[in-house]
Amino acid sequence: MLSCRLLAAALAVASSLATASAADEFGYTTSGDKYIINTGAGLTIAMRQASCDIVSINYNGQELQYKSMGTHVNSGLGQVESTIQALNDDKKTINVNCKKTGIEQSYFFRPNENVVYMGTYHSNDLVLPELRFLARLDKTVMNQGILEATHEAGMTAIEATDIVANAEGITRSKYYSGVPFIDDAVHGVNSTAAGVYLVISEHGYETSSGGPFFRDINNKLDVSNELSFYMNSDHTRIEDYRYGFHGPYALALTSGAAPDASTLDFSFFQDQELTGFVPDAKRGEVAGTITDANDVLGNSEVVVAFSNADAQYWVKVPAGTKTFTSPKMKPGTYKAIVYKKQLAVGTASITVAEGASASETIDVSYEMNTKPIWRIGEWDGTPDGFLNADKIHKMHPSDSRMDAWGPITFAAGTDEDSKFPTAQFRAANDDIKITFNLTDAQAGQDKTLKIGVPLAQVNARSDVKANDFETETAPSVAVKTRGITRGVTMDCECA
Known about the structure:
Elements lengths: L26 E5 L2 E5 L4 E6 L5 E6 L2 E2 L8 E2 L7 E6 L7 E7 L2 E7 L5 E8 L8 E7 L18 E4 L3 E3 L5 E3 L12 E5 L4 E6 L18 E3 L3 E8 L11 E11 L30 E7 L10 E6 L4 E6 L5 E3 L6 E9 L2 E10 L4 E7 L45 E3 L21 E3 L4 H4 L5 E5 L11 E2 L2 E2 L19 E5 L1
Parallel strand pairs: 20-26, 27-28
Antiparallel strand pairs: 1-2, 2-3, 3-4, 4-5, 6-11, 7-8, 8-9, 9-10, 10-19, 11-18, 12-13, 13-14, 15-16, 16-19, 17-18, 20-23, 21-22, 21-24, 24-25, 29-32, 30-31
């Protein structure tokens, strides 16, 4: 699993994270209404005491901060109670703590590390539509973003205000910068001046919502170069928000290249008494076995995920392997799910106790039809292999780089899966006609058509007509916000 392990011993920070300058000294001062923190390695941060907005990120003499707005949680916390201190540890770690009702933001700075370590505590005493850390960078200095989220001159809005296109039909949006949480340990932007990256620790997503395949906004380059870590959002949300401690996570500055997540040492968080933070000593884990008597998993990618109202975790299981060890988890009872790629094929209830390793077995109980009359695509919870599936997460369906959506006539059992469209849009590529032949014996028996729908919204659903038979399919209620790039699975059976 892509993760940032909480290491037991201090590591030497990679040279890309620390370009020492003899003229710099690690420490902090106050200047007017600001805290000034110097890492001793070329990074100086200025933060307003009243709001904890970061108003200056000076790296090796270059100002990276966007001048008109700050770097902060959400769009700023407003008035907070803030303190700054040097901790009594061997590094004399600098801690800035920012607190108001329902939220507490902690910043940490370590000597000779160009890293801003962070943790965010959020309770339901403060209702927020979303929770994010947002770095706003000066695009004239930090002039390269994630390409799919980079707004270029001449682009105009084609959907709401946040999806834009140029005259050639090339589309861009902040939504196209997302990466599934399970694969998103490091993301960032760079230029000749610096690289700026968000690094998410192994437990960084445990209080977020959405599960391992959820993705959210990482970047938008428009007026400024915005780099974000969304901890909770309403972007195609499928479950209630979790509350508690989010993190640890970090903003890391380099000479340009992305750091390896393992080069950041989050282990010092174990010694901090932060609101809501659960140290490893008070966690447990699961050492599990997957039983798959009918070989449903085959050679597919496998993920085991755990969730309850307070936390979520996941672990990748190599194809062909049937054992796993979870991350260290908060004590509690969890629903464990085995995924064949992104299709839930087995579940179990698992209890995790403090300081213990639970031995559990999860049975793959999903009944896979191994001999259908015909099947289009792989039954794995994704539209992978279908027309435009390789593009749907990174551009708008109307993008000129998309292959034509249709409508089409598809010959089941003859045409390649890549001819069948990943998505069906009302009044755009409907109806889709599927032709097939039945033997006399098959024609005399009742049949079931099963359709897997990773996402449906705005009352969209698959209505099916076969000769004189027609379905009346109810719309999905799983998603109430827009977005076509996040995994929300339902099945439709027409008998």
